[in-house]
Specification:
By secondary structure, the chain is α/β, with parallel strands linked by helices. It has one domain: TIM Barrel, CATH 3.20.20. The chain has 13 helices and eleven strands. The strands form two sheets. An eight-stranded parallel beta sheet has the order 1-5-6-7-8-9-10-11. A three-stranded antiparallel beta sheet has the order 2-3-4.
């Protein structure tokens, strides 16, 4: 079996409800020249909502073609809704989660789900995560790398970490709005380099900010092979040693120890890089991902895993489904 930890969706009924609500949920939907666009009500444009994020039949066909048995579905990260007010954000996330749960229920052998939660209101986010896992059967939550500019080490977010740790569910960290202070429009740099850099900064804040020291049983999966984290973890250790008054103010252990505590998907586009990642964090902490349906995803993930140098059959099975299966069995509902 193969389980994809990293796939995105916009549930069709969620989109219909947003459109019919005419901005009541904080998001305006408009159809222009055949394209469906979303915007914050009275605020900035979110962008075109791709058809392949919404088409369930095409998704199932693509899964069959790429030998993916199960997708763990998460929101398109640009629709996280973190800029909405607390009441709107809570209602928006409940609508999304219930719409996604309906998709999973109609294809229970092919799909599982990650919740969207209103991180701008951490206590409400914790409550929504508990509802999503305990009542809707979801297996965790996808979160963005910042919360309207707030870094993930902010103690205000502790209610969410506490809830996720108690549930023993999966937290998937996904980049959003990469490096807004830099000009990344040229050369597709916002995706090619900006997203992994954004991820690295976010997980760096979590490590150096002591999030894992406070919540050591958090299960966090970092997409895109961990960004640049696995390949610069030695530099982070050196910072811990060289400037302890800064880098070790919230840490009692080397950053690399927490780096090996995390989980990573396989979306690196290079089997040799995956070999390096496995050697750094052990094969038990790597899980198959695709980033479906985006161009920077991996359309042949099973083949990618099969091409990793020196990988044995037992290790291959761990990456395909064994590791995520182990985590799913630990969830407290």
């Amino acid at each position: 079996m193969s389980i994809d930890i990293h796939a995105h969706i916009i549930p069709p009924e969620f989109l219909n409800a947003l459109r019919d609500g005419r901005g009541r949920h904080g998001i305006d939907i408009a159809v222009e020249d055949g394209n469906v666009r979303a915007a914050i009500s009275g605020g900035p444009d979110i962008g075109v909502l791709r058809a392949d994020l919404r088409d369930i039949d095409d998704r199932l066909a693509a899964m069959d073609a790429s030998a993916v048995d199960i997708q763990i579905l998460a929101n398109w990260i640009d629709l996280n809704g973190y800029v909405l007010s607390e009441p709107q954000g809570a209602e928006y996330c409940r609508l999304f989660n219930e719409s996604l749960a309906a998709v999973v229920a109609s294809h229970s052998k092919r799909f599982m789900a990650l919740a969207n939660v209103p991180l701008q209101a951490p206590s409400a986010a914790a409550a929504e995560l508990n509802h999503a896992v305990s009542e809707l059967g979801m297996v965790g939550v996808q979160i963005a790398t910042t919360v309207a500019g707030q870094e993930l080490d902010d103690p205000d977010l502790d209610p969410l970490w506490e809830a996720a740790e108690g549930l023993r569910c999966i937290v998937v960290l996904h980049p959003y709005n990469p490096l807004p202070q830099r000009g990344l429009r040229r050369y597709f740099l916002s995706n090619a380099l900006g997203r992994p850099a954004e991820t690295t900064l976010a997980i760096g804040h979590m490590i150096f900010g002591g999030v894992f020291e406070r919540f050591p049983n958090l299960t966090v999966c970092v997409v895109h092979g961990g960004g640049f984290l696995p390949y610069q973890i030695g530099r982070m250790d050196q910072a811990f040693r060289a400037k302890p008054e800064l880098a070790a103010s919230h840490l009692t252990r080397l950053p690399s120890e927490w780096g090996r505590h995390l989980y990573y998907d396989t979306v690196t586009h290079n089997p040799d890089v995956l070999r390096f990642l496995i050697d750094q964090v052990e094969v038990t902490h790597v899980m198959m991902g695709t980033d479906y349906p985006f161009e920077m995803g991996d359309g042949r993930p099973v083949d990618t895993i099969g091409s990793i140098p020196g990988l044995g059959d037992d290790e291959r099975r761990l990456i395909l489904d064994g590791n995520v299966g182990r985590l799913l069995a630990e969830i407290q509902r």
